[in-house]
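Progress report, Aim 2. The chain analyzed during this reporting quarter is listed below.
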Amino acid sequence: MVRSIIIDTDPGQDDAVALLLAFASPELNVLGVTTVAGNVPLSLTSKNALKICELARRTDVPVHAGCDRPMDRPLVTAEHVHGKTGLDGSNLPDPSTALAQKHAVDFIIDQVRSNPDKSITLCPLGPLTNIATALTQAPDIAPKIQEIVLMGGGYFEGGNITPVAEFNIYVDPKSADIVLRSGIDITMLPLDATHQAMIRQDWLDHLAAWKTPVGTAVSGMLDFSQRFDVEKYEGKGAPLHDPTVIAYLLDPTLFSGRLINVEIETQSELTLGMTVADWWRVTNRPANVTFIRDINEAAFFDLLTQRLATL
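Predicted structure tokens for the chain:
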């Protein structure tokens, strides 16, 4: 059965790999790509999404630019990880295709309304600004969405932009709070899982040896972005965060977690953007998120390698 998805993203090297994995997977019908400000500003995330669509030869998939700043705070970006372009290391040419005219938020609302109920899964890979804005502007779409599968948060692993906050949630905590309170079925791929999906140099060398446009671009991009994380994580490798969302859709048996209450800290200066996961179910707050804690790393990379090789 083919699953219809919208990928909401802020490319970012790992976002780019997630897009490529989705495009290489016939089980997924990518209705569109929506972009948001996050890893780099919106103009660059949108340009990067077009580049990846062209790399995958999927210019049939529309790219819609969305929100250029969080709901209620200044934008925080991550050029220190992803480089000035967001895709440093890829050497991809500027795109020849153009963005779709419709705003990303309007595209999400229209797609959910015009398709059968519970037929669209939203896949946010960056800050949740577009998703929260769509839910705020059109609350009627919430019960029509099949599921939200997102990369974000972290509990046992702490944070990667502050001691307690994961980057995507920290950029726009208010939006994350709105999404988690929406009543939609949500699966969260947090740092607790993605920190088990560590890039290995021999894997990058294997991709480069293909001498294909995709193999060259992915190995170059990840070689660039991993330099920051290899130092940060003391030589253990660099986590490949965002492709876990697509891998979960393709084979959820690669992952394990539990349905728990998850809430976002939106007030404290010290812990702003913290993902408060009630893993041990010590509160009476209702469960609202399937929180993934573990991943089969070897099987994940096997799946990713097999699919990327088809592009």
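The mean pLDDT is 97. The longest strand covers residues 28-35. These observations will guide the mutagenesis work planned for the next reporting period.
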